[in-house]
Amino acid sequence: MLSCIFCILQCYMISVSSSCREVDWFSLGGVIFLLMFAPLIVYYFVMSCDQYQCALTGPVLDLYSGKTQLSDIWDRTPLITWKAVYIYAAWVSFQVFLYMLLPDICHKFIPGYVGGVQEGARTPAGVVNKYQINGLQAWIITHIVWFANAYYLHWFSPTIIIDNWIPLLWCTNVLGYSVSTFALIKAYLFPTNAKDCKFTGNFLYDYMMGIEFNPRIGKWFDFKLFFNGRPGIVAWTLINLSYAAKQQELYGQVTNSMILVNILQAIYVVDFFWNEAWYLKTIDICHDHFGWYLGWGDCVWLPFLYTLQGLYLVYNPVQLSTTNAVGVLLLGLIGYYIFRMTNHQKDLFRRTNGNCVIWGKKPKYIECSYTSADGKRHNSKLMISGFWGVARHFNYTGDLMGSLSYCLACGFDHLLPYFYIIYMTILLVHRCIRDEHRCSSKYGKDWKLYTDAVPYRLLPGVF
C-alpha cells in the first residue's frame, strides 16, 4: 500500500513540476513524504528478502506480535563496507570512462543503429543540446568484460553484486544524494543555462524536482543522459546475471524462471540503448528538470526495485512447467513487439510526414493546429491507423504486458515480485492522463475529433 501511495504522489509531483512554478501545500507534503519514505521503501523491500525470504508482511507481523523490534531488524542489516565502496566507485568510474572517453563506433558498422553525436529537443529557453550517444557500445563492452571475467579472467566472482547487495544499497544512496545536492548547488552558483532554470522558492521542492533543465559539466557530460542510463540501466542486466550465478551456487542450477527474467529484461535494456537517440525526445529529457527525483531515483530506485523479480528468485527459486514458461515467454515477446512496433509506426509517420505505408495502407490521420508560446500558428497530424488506431497509448499496453511477464515468471506465492506491474500500471495510466491533458490544451477541438476516432486509451473496449 505504501508503495502505491508513493507511485501516486510521484506521478502528481511530476505533473505539478511540468505545469507551474508555485508549490501548494499538498505538493509540499508530497515532497516531504517522498524524501522521507522512498528510501525506506527500497530498504524495506531489500531487507524483506534478506531477512524474511521476500515476505513483505513478515517484518510487520513480527513487529506487531512482539517477536522482534526495529532495532533487531536494523542490527541484522549489513552496513556499508569498504569492499562495497571500492566496487561501486570502480563501477561508476568505468561507466564515466565509457561515456566520456570512448566515442561511439557502433553506428558505423551496425545497420539501422543511430549513435554518435545527436541533437536533442529544443529546451524551453530555445537551446538545442548535442549528446554523445554511445550507450549501446557501453553496454556491449561492459558485458564483454563481465563474461570474460566469469569464464577466463576470474578477477571477481559472478555473484559479487548479490553478495554485497545491501552494502551497495548504501553506496548508491550516497551517490544519489550527492549528485542531487550538487545539482542544486550548481543551479544557484554556476548553471549550464540560467534561462532553463526553474526556481519555485521552495527549497525542498526545488531539491526534489530540480532547478536546472539540462545540467552539464563541460561540453558532453550531461547529468540526465548519464545517470538515467549508465549506472542503473547498464547494471540492470549485470544484476540479473549475478542473481542467476547465485542460484547456481546455492541450488546447483539456474531455474527456467530466472532465465526468463534475464532474457525478457535484457530485451528491454538492449532496446533502450538501441533507441537511445529516440529517448532524447521523451518526457524525461524534454520536460523534467534534474533533481533528487531523477538523481536519487536513477541511482537507487531503478536498480534495486526494477530487479526485484531476480532477487526474489534467489530466495524463492521457481521452476515453471513447460507450458507456463512458454506462456510467460510469449506474453513478454508479444508485449515487446507491440511496444516497439507502436513506437516505430509513430516515428515512421513523423519522419515521412504521413507519406508511408502502415499495415499495408497509407495511414489515416487527423489534421490539427495549435498556437505556440510565441503566438505562431502550427499544423500537426495525429495518426489514427495501425496500433495508434487501436488505442491512443497502445505502446504503454505493450510495455505493461512485458512488465506482467516478468512478474508471472515468479509464480504466485508472494506479492513482492508484483510490485513492478503495480508501479508501472499506476505510472503509465497517470502518464496517459497527463499527456492527454496537455494535448487537449494544445489542440482544443481537434483533440476531441481525435479521441472520437480513437476512443480508448490502453485496452479497446475497457479503458
Automatic annotation (TrEMBL):
Keyword set, alphabetical order: Cholesterol biosynthesis, Cholesterol metabolism, Endoplasmic reticulum, Lipid biosynthesis, Lipid metabolism, Membrane, NADP, Oxidoreductase, Signal, Steroid biosynthesis, Steroid metabolism, Sterol biosynthesis, Sterol metabolism, Transmembrane, Transmembrane helix
EC number: 1.3.1.21
Entries under InterPro entries matching the protein: ERG24_DHCR-like, Sterol_reductase_CS
Domain of life: Eukaryota
Membrane topology, from the record: Multi-pass membrane protein
A GO BP annotation: brassinosteroid biosynthetic process
Pfam families assigned to the protein according to its UniProt record, in alphabetical order: ERG4_ERG24
Pathway entry: Steroid biosynthesis; cholesterol biosynthesis
Similarity comment: family membership: Belongs to the ERG4/ERG24 family.
Protein name, per record: 7-dehydrocholesterol reductase
Annotated organism of origin: Engystomops pustulosus (Tungara frog)
Lineage: Eukaryota, Metazoa, Chordata, Craniata, Vertebrata
